[in-house]
Amino acid sequence: MTVRVPCMMKLSEPSKGAMFHRLQSMATAMVADQLTISLRVWTTIARSTVNSNCADSATITVVRVADLSPGEGTLVSTNPPTYILCPLPTNAPNPYLTICATPCPWWMTDTNLPACWQMTGGLSATNADGTISRTCRRVDRRQLGTTTITATAGCSSNTVVIIVQ
Fold it and tell me: In Å, how far are 36, 122, 125 from 153, measured between CA atoms?
């Protein structure tokens, strides 16, 4: 989506910055999407000279957490979603439950998620290339207890609770 904001007033450089900040704030309230803001302003060079050839633009990608859920378990509560799983023996070959968050827009990956994207709780998960995953966490099913996993992107947040008992 492209938004063009014509400005019929004279703006100083600090005012242009404030205008962009307001537009960025409005964009974060949108549903996740890519937004290009083009701002054309009149700037005063000297008291009698007006420059109308100044234009600025910025592309803003609004990201939210679309989903956070485990691949297995029995759902026992919905606020927050709480799942119960049976424990595994200490010698289980793959004792970890992996919980992955799905970002929106769907094409976001570990490498291009914004800095505001965070996951907390549980244990870190590793990607196929050996890097720490920014979209997945793990729960050790050999350990009895409760683990809360939260995915956050700015003001968008999803939480899931895993109980191993």
Answer: 20, 18, 18
